[in-house]
Each structure stands twice: as structure tokens, then as C-alpha cells.
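step=predict obj=Signal peptidase complex subunit 2 n=225
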Amino acid sequence: MAASKRKGKSSLPPSSPSKASEIKPDADSDLDESVEFEQEQVVPVKVNNGSITELKNALDDSTKVHLTKNHNFIEDHSHDDIKLTLGWVSSLLAGAVSFAGWHYGWEKTQGYTLYVVVVYWIIATIALVHATFVQKQIIYVGRRASMNDKSTFERITISTESTSYDPIYKVNLDYEIPKKNGIKKYQTDLKPHYKDFFDVDGTLMESIWNSYLDGILKTAISKAN
């Protein structure tokens, strides 16, 4: 009986830990690949075809992402920083005078409140002047190391504009490349139609827009060199 039991046990195929360990990594790798695939998938941008503002904002945002991600430009956020700084200062002044009025009473703080109101309007005026005469229609300012000289930087400035009830996306591109004899510039104005980059459902065809933008950039670089 004992011999038959031993024989029966030995006849069973032993489990191979090496095979079991091989299955687990394969499953994990498949899971990792599926996760990476999901992360790489881009959610399509969909807007209201009847809204010029939404159409413009979608192309503006796509332009910023494409230039930074695919062309290695470093975006200059100076205009945004100025607006944020002025906004924060205005908010802090308003909060401070409100707290002082609540804590000390109106009669003791009314003189200070007048000064704060004057300063607030000065800051608001500065912000308006900056947006109107300095930033204007600029949506993107970026720079990257020059292909000819890594110690210098090429600079790109893009301005866009659209008017109500006019489905034209006005683009102004200004490109600067440093040379030994100074900075060489190239500027161009383009007026594509929104329907060229959005389908009937309002979905942005990013590949088409990116190709269009690549063409503009390629022309700018060749003309500036």
C-alpha cells in the first residue's frame, strides 16, 4: 500500500514554479501596456460650432500645447504673471480694508479706505493698459535654443483674433532668429476658416491644425534663416 501511494504521487506532474512565475509577469506587462495605451489616448476637443469664442479658444489652447510639446518651445508667461500679480494685489487690498472696517469700525478706517480705493483703481487702470497696449492679442510667446547656436534662443510670438459672426481665424506669427549680424525676423498674417479645422459636430481635427501650424513654422524658419 505504501509503495502504491508513493508511485501514485510520483506519477502526478509536479507543478513548475518557473512556469507560474512566467505567467504572472506576462499578465502584469499586458496590464501595464493597456494602462499606457489609455494614458496616450487624447480626449477630442469638442466645442459649439456656433460660438466664435469657443472655436478661437480651442485653437489657441491647441497651439500652445503643440508648440510646447512637439517643438520644444518654452512658453513665456510674463503677461499672465503680470495680470495675476495685479489681481492678487487688488484682492489683498480689498480684503485688508474690509477686515479693518469690520474690526475697527467704519469711522476709524474711512480715511484709509479712500486711499485704498484710489490705489485699487490705479491698479485696475494699469491692468487695462497692459492688456490693451502691451499684450494686445498675443496668445503665445515662446523660445527655444537656436539650431545654429545653442547659446542663443529663437523666439516665436503668435497673436490671434476673431470677430463676432465672422468665421475667420486671424493669425499673426512673428519669428526671430539671432544671427552674428543681429536678429533676423520673419512675420506673416494668415486668415484660415474655422471649418478647415472643425468637423460638423464641432470636434477639433487636431492633426490637421497641427500640420497647418507646422507648415507656418517651417516657412518662418526658412525665411528667417
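step=describe
The first helix runs from residue 2 to 11.
step=end
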